[in-house]
């Protein structure tokens, strides 16, 4: 059978990994795909780098648009990143009848609806396994492996940089700034880590997960996003004393009235498998009605893990290219005319348990006032920890864990607690998920 001719746009970390793995495992990949897969041309502004990696095995150019226009190319692999020129290249490739593979979660989270509609119209595939959780095949699991299920919720550690930082803060007692500096020194964090530490990267991925899990349009602009920059090491310590660990989670939860789509730090019981995912690793926990809970764990970034997902997409395209477009696996798992219009719920409607840390004056009656305020908001207490003040100290920390309540109930209670004369400063609130 004729080879699948691939044009690779960008030969940086992931592109270089894809070229290396595809070359090294060419025979095995061909056996799986039913035909050879050849990278025919590579486009990169750094021609010297491209030539050093490819070693003359294919054409090299600095003109990505020339690759997209090349009639001999069957599939365009977009590994440039960003939402500017990458969008132009992808849409032009689709318009010219070429299949697309991309690892660009930002592009799909922001423009995915437009891109998938264009691909549907032209009868081509847009594959994006590498866009979420690197080498973990979570897209295929949600889209195909769990097709029989009504998926209830998905919760994932889907950003390795923040997971590494939180692990270091907990294990070594580092401040956020110290742990970030260590992550940058080891290459886990970029020089500008904003997208990671502010939760944006995880929110891009969670948005795609929600769309596939629940059959809804991609709606990144409606996701609630909160990063880890305001976390303090003391809260990770108290969480540990109460039997919890803090992780940055992307959460998509289906409810009768809509979908919760949120990214923020979460307390998880230490006995949960997800709580024990450490360092730069990723893991996604899916709960569905027929199969129950399934966990997907592995490397969420890196040259070869992400390349593994890129090449898996190329194999899928090689297998399915000759199939009638109406009979292929839909981009978002559900048939395009069967997407639900379930709304993304605002964060005030989210339902979680809470961790509250209060700094209070060491005097009688404070806890009674706090419990009364919580009771007035119909919030029940699950656990309470009060640090004994050192001799001569006039204030102490009180930690309250609540049962599940709506965010707006917790907000109202926190405002009233902060107004108490015995409460010093702001209340620290973290959300808590049992993940049962």
What's the mean pLDDT score? 95
What's the number of domains? 3
CATH architecture verdict of the largest domain: 3-Layer(aba) Sandwich
- The helix count comes to 15
Q: What is the total tally of β strands? A: 17
Q: Which blocks of ≥5 consecutive residues have pLDDT under 50?
A: none
Query: CATH homologous superfamily name of the largest domain?
Result: NAD(P)-binding Rossmann-like Domain
Helix content: 25-40%
- Based on secondary structure, the structural category is alpha/beta
Principal-axis shape equals: elongated
End-to-end Cα distance: 49 Å
Largest β-sheet summary? 11 strands, mixed
Name of the level-1 CATH class of the largest domain: Alpha Beta
Query: What's the gyration radius in Å?
Result: 24 Å
CATH topology of the largest domain: Rossmann fold
Q: Tell me the fraction of residues in β-strands, as a range.
A: 25-35%
């Amino acid at each position: 059978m004729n080879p699948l001719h691939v044009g690779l746009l960008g030969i940086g970390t992931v592109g270089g990994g894809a070229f290396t793995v595809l070359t090294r495992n060419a025979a095995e990949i061909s056996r799986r795909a039913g035909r050879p897969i050849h990278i025919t041309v590579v486009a990169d502004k750094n021609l010297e780098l491209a030539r050093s990696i490819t070693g003359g095995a294919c054409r090299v150019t600095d003109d990505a648009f020339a690759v997209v226009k090349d009639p001999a190319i069957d599939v365009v692999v977009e590994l440039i990143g960003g939402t500017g020129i990458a969008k132009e290249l992808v849409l032009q490739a689709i318009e010219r009848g070429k299949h697309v593979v991309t690892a660009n979660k930002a592009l799909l989270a922001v423009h995915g609806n437009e891109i998938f509609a264009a691909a549907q119209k032209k009868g081509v595939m847009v594959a994006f396994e590498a866009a979420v959780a690197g080498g973990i095949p979570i897209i295929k699991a949600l889209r195909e492996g769990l097709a029989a299920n009504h998926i209830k919720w998905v919760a994932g550690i889907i950003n390795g940089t923040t997971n590494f930082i939180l692990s270091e803060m907990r294990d070594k007692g580092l401040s956020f700034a110290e742990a970030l500096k260590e992550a940058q020194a080891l290459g886990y964090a970029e020089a500008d880590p904003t997208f990671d530490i502010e939760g944006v990267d995880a929110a891009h991925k969670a948005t795609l997960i929600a769309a596939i899990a629940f059959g809804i349009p991609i709606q990144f602009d409606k996701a609630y996003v909160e990063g880890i920059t305001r976390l303090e090491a003391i809260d990770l310590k108290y969480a540990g004393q109460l039997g919890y660990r803090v992780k940055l989670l992307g959460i998509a939860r289906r409810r009768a009235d809509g979908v919760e789509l949120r990214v923020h730090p979460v307390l998880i019981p230490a006995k949960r498998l997800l709580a024990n995912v450490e360092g730069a690793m990723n893991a996604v926990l899916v709960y569905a009605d027929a199969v129950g809970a399934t966990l997907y764990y592995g490397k969420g970034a890196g040259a070869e893990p992400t390349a593994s997902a890129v090449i898996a997409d190329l194999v899928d395209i090689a297998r399915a290219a000759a199939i009638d477009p109406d009979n292929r696996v839909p981009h978002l798992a559900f048939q395009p005319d069967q997407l639900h219009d379930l709304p993304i719920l605002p964060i005030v409607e989210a339902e979680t348990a809470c961790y509250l840390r209060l700094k209070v004056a060491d005097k009688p009656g404070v806890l009674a006032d706090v419990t009364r305020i919580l009771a007035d908001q119909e919030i029940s207490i699950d656990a309470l920890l009060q640090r004994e003040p050192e001799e001569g100290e006039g204030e102490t920390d009180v930690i309250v864990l609540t049962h599940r309540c709506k965010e707006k109930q917790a907000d109202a209670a926190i405002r009233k607690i902060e107004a108490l004369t015995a409460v010093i400063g702001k209340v620290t609130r973290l959300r808590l998920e049992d993940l049962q």
